[in-house]
Amino acid sequence: MKHFISRRNFLKAAGVTAAASAMAAAVPQASAGWLTGKDAAVTILYTNDVHTYIDNKSPKLTYAAIAALKQGYVDEGKPVLLVDAGDHIQGTAYGSMDDGATIIELMNEAGYDVATLGNHEFDYGMARAKAVIKEADFPYVSCNWVDLRTGLRVLPAVKLFPAGGKWIAFVGITTPESFTKSTPAYFMNAKQTKYIYDILGGDDGRKLYDAVQKGIDKAKALGADVIIGLGHLGVDPSSSPWTSEEVIANTTGFDAFIDGHSHTVMENKQVYDAAGKAVTLTQTGSYLANVGKMTLAEDGTITTELISTADVSDAAVAATAATWIKEVDEMLGEQIAVTDINFYISDPATGKRRIRSGETNLGDFVADGIYTYFNEIEQLDCDIAMMNGGGIRTDVSAGAWSFKTCKQISPFGNVACLMAVTGQQIQDALEFGARFVGPEGKENGGFLHVAGATYEIHTDIPNTVRTDDKNVWQGSATGTPRVQNVRIYDRKTGTYEPLDLNRTYALAGMNYTLRNLGDGFAMFDGAELIKDYVAEDYLVMSTYAMIFDGATEGMPVLASANSPLASYPGYLLDYEDPHGAGRIQVV
């Protein structure tokens, strides 16, 4: 049964049980697409990081197109498998409005045979992640997700399929970054005093490598002829030591590896394993920009290609998608504002994502929305608002804004809260968020955009923040702080005053960051809660947009001069600059 927000509840808001068995993978019975006949080439179609982008138009790819591609092989009597490497139920309103239920329905109808969990499969909570696994007609595999209460894997590590006279095994792998790139609290007990689930990783990667090797060895013991990694790990340096390349290099036995997580377009890269054997590594990118096609030839040769368009479609799958797209668009399609400004998470000069390492006008806008909500709507005294860059998901072009626009920007369903914190806790949070910033730095979803504050990041000062093996904050910087000259806006004087480490401030943000250890922000543990669950992230943003001035044909116009914050003397505001108002200086 779907659990999605009704029109009535939406409008009101606006104004597996037990885990799957961890026993060894069962040998499946032959079914359409697997064909057990000997000496036949096998096709494996694969996707990753679809992130609920289901509204592509032909000839761009859709689940209906992928279903038809697979069925084409079945109709020709050719063995074929369809697999996914994670992050398929979260990303747009089409996923978040029913917690991924329709996405799983579409994947079921498309004929997926196996999938692994990405970090975003946990975004709706642990109970929902387990429910998704039960709703799927296909199995999920993960060799490194364990229940610490039993010491057992939550899911099977391996799934075998007979196809083309071979036994093909998939070893599932989930990124250990799931702790901080989803919500750490979901992996803890109800009181958030200890972890009850782990995604094995280890500071040096050894726990991950060992878990993967055990999965490979199990596949061999079960009689696999071909062993393929189905991982959500990626190749970004920021994911080290848990990248797919490092896993391959520290294990033996893979013939190929289908990857996800880093949104990398990688048709075929040869990576050498610990025994010096070349392993085919591939990834499709993201958002159904491509579907991968891996061919296992009769002689054992493995080739791959990426397909970006398809002029075929399965009518039933297309109908399911169209019905849901229409329903969501009707619920969220009401126009609420217009603008001549392009809002960015990327750098328009380079196209490179900037939101996780530097200030942007959209980062300012989202943080300002939280700050304004508590000061102007709730009529509470909010000193500063913070928003993690990883929670701001897409550029927005000039034009009309709707509720859907805001839902696309912030699709997670987090709720805003206000807490009483010390200046030291604010300093610790900014320092933690800025720990990777620099010319050779890496992205960080916990990079903090601010409203009612300014700060500097000194990249020549090394990071000395203390973290645990899951990158959760453990203590203040032990050396000179990288973040300096933090200033908090004083609404009475219209000036930015130096942060007082001993003073108590009212800090606003999303529960993900302030209460649920999201991105590893543990420094707020024990802070006094002033107000919680005021509104969902996209509704906070929508409310901000709707109270702008400068109405054109009854629509508020999103421009700096029209913001309610424009009446705050000396407040830094410049949405017209793609890089924002200069609140965050990287020096």
Automatic annotation (TrEMBL):
Question: Known NCBIfam families for this protein?
Answer: TAT_signal_seq (TIGR01409)
Signal peptide (residue range): 1-24
Q: Which residues form a coiled coil?
A: none
Q: Where is the Calcineurin-like phosphoesterase domain?
A: 43-264
Q: Which InterPro entries match?
A: 5'-Nucleotdase_C, 5'-Nucleotdase_C_sf, 5'-Nucleotdase_CS, 5_nucleotidase/apyrase, Calcineurin-like_PHP, Metallo-depent_PP-like, TAT_signal, TAT_signal_bac_arc
Q: Looking at the keywords, is Glycoprotein present?
A: no
Query: Among its keywords, does the record have Nucleotide-binding?
Result: yes
Q: Which organism is it from?
A: Faecalibacterium butyricigenerans
Q: Record's family?
A: Belongs to the 5'-nucleotidase family.
The protein here is known as Bifunctional metallophosphatase/5'-nucleotidase
